[in-house]
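Think of the structure tokens as a kind of shorthand, similar to the way a musician reads notation: each symbol stands for something richer, in this case the local conformation of the backbone. In the example below we present two proteins back to back. Begin with the first one, reading the sequence and then the tokens, and try to describe in your own words what changes along the chain.
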Amino acid sequence: MIGPETSVHVPCESIVADPDHTDPNARLEPGSTGSWPKISGADGEDVDLSSIPPESNRIHDLAALTDLSGGEYKLINPSLDLSVSVSFPADLYEYVWYWGAFGGFETAPFFGRNYNLGLEPCTSVPNAGLDRAVEEGTANQIHPDETVSASMSISTGPS
């Protein structure tokens, strides 16, 4: 599904590069911010997260997509005439994690053999665990005797 011809569409306004992601194959400056789809790269150049790099670039990025205006994202690959959409309740999942392991995740368990994009609706940031998300005020809280439920859907179609 993904490749350099794939475009990524997320209804968000802001990007926050994971402050603790210091992988040597990361394009993003840890902790940097940007406006979708561009964010400052570690080399000072803008990185466009709506485009998928070729596997030969050996990239491993991690960022949070924030300030969502809707609960859906879409990938479109015109060379396959294929699109994939994921819908989720944006009032519960206020963030989407962007994990781009485009041949550059060289440690276990992948050792550089994976070429994938993970877009994960999430309830909190940063990626350093729930305690830190609570400290930073981004974690949703469930109170005693409260129940939270959600549904997500995925659909495919032509590009």
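Once you have a description of the first chain, move to the second and do the same.
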Amino acid sequence: MGFYDDEKTARQYIEMAEGYDGAELIQALHAHVPKGATILELGMGPGTDLNILNQSYTVTGSDTSQFFLDEYATKHPKADIIHLDAQHLDTDRVWDCVYSNKVLHHLDDAELENSLARQCKILAENGCIMHSFWRGSGVDEHQGLRFHNRTEDDIRNVVEKEFNILELATYNEMEPDDSIYVIASKK
């Protein structure tokens, strides 16, 4: 059982993440993705960003945690949510955009490269991605979870294999410039 599948640790995560959301990221996304577009959110967790995205887009939430999916479905029975692994993305569905907020940092470099290649395949023509990461170098571990910190160059090097970068910027989540987001269009 994974960290986010265990009810106790998933609830701890929900408490820790209280007050944080991707509203700033989603505002940047509006400049590149028109209202009404279809978006797949990877790693929706408790659904905080999913709720914000749903205000402007047609959104599918996904997670590998059945706990998060079940909790969200209980509160939002008509929501479009699917069990999906962010690396392999085993689905035939297609979206205009793939979005994640601090999810892909759990993937090592090869896994991230695989995920981005797969994302390219499930995007519509002219589709785009938006992902955020912790900014830095090295790997941190917390309660068995890996966090791969990334620099702007790290992100540029892997993203540009499949996508054209539209925006690559730092922002503040907990400390000044502790985070990076990338918005990129399918080549």
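Compare your description with these statements about the second chain. The beta strands are 38-41, 58-63, 81-83, 95-101, 123-134, 139-142, 145-148, 163-171, 179-186.
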